[in-house]
Amino acid sequence: xxxxxxxxxxxxxxxxxxxxxxxxxxxxxxxxxxxxxxxxxxxxxxxxxxxxxxxxxxxxxxxxxxxxxxxxxxxxxxxxxxxxxxxxxxxxxxxxxxxxxxxxxxxxxxxxxxxxxxxxxxxxxxxxxxxxxxxxxxxxxxxxxxxxxxxxxxxxxxxxxxxxxxxxxxxxxxxxxxxxxxxxxxxxxxxxxxxxxxxxxxxxxxxxxxxxxxxxxxxxxxxxxxxxxxxxxxxxxxxxxxxxxxxxxxxxxxxxxxxxxxxxxxxxxxxxxx
Length: 274
Fold this sequence. Notes:
Layout: H1 2-18, E1 23-29, H2 42-56, E2 60-64, H3 68-77, E3 81-84, E4 100-103, E5 107-116, E6 135-143, E7 149-156, H4 162-176, E8 184-190, H5 198-205, E9 209-210, H6 211-214, E10 217-219, E11 239-244, E12 248-253, E13 269-273
Parallel strand pairs: 1-2, 7-8, 10-12
Antiparallel strand pairs: 1-13, 2-4, 3-4, 5-6, 6-7, 8-11, 9-11, 12-13
Helix pairs in contact: 4-5
């Protein structure tokens, strides 16, 4: 009964806020295709992931850990969205993507690109003490209805290298600081950093705000990583949506359990802006 009540509340907030929301943004580490995940593997979750995106009517979503086979499935099943991004290992289709999907009925693509979190950001590379190549995908969109321009960057920091995470924040901060003074700006992703760590605090220092701390309504778990441990209460908040020149109204973390598992080993984070 408690789970049904929570699901009802989540749906009610979604329905009430959609009518007033100008922009709905999501960051979602969907977990790469891994047969070793057992009942949690992608084949058992992929339909639920697509249904979640459609049901929430998300305008812009940044995903992490997406392999090309997953890109193919998502593109086929999300026909109202345009996908932007490349594989991090070769800048084409090899390795994980950090793709951005946007509703093509609401936005026009003005520009897009990718850069690596390393000392050679313009080519596929591993940065500092990172275990793997890490990439950022970005888009510049025009709101078809309002003609407003919005910049969106999607990042996935390394899970091993402490220096890599710190320098990744420095690199992003240098690119963002003083730029886009009037345009709307979203930086989102899986940063593999908890809020108390210095490396993540470099982002607000560059002029962006944390939507979790500034939204009018906050709903759901504070933590965003679950490791597929259903019912786990104390999970770290490592997935973020930062913003500039927007007003966050509702911040939500979806921790729904479907067929004995979560949508992913990270909870999707949704922010509704006005």
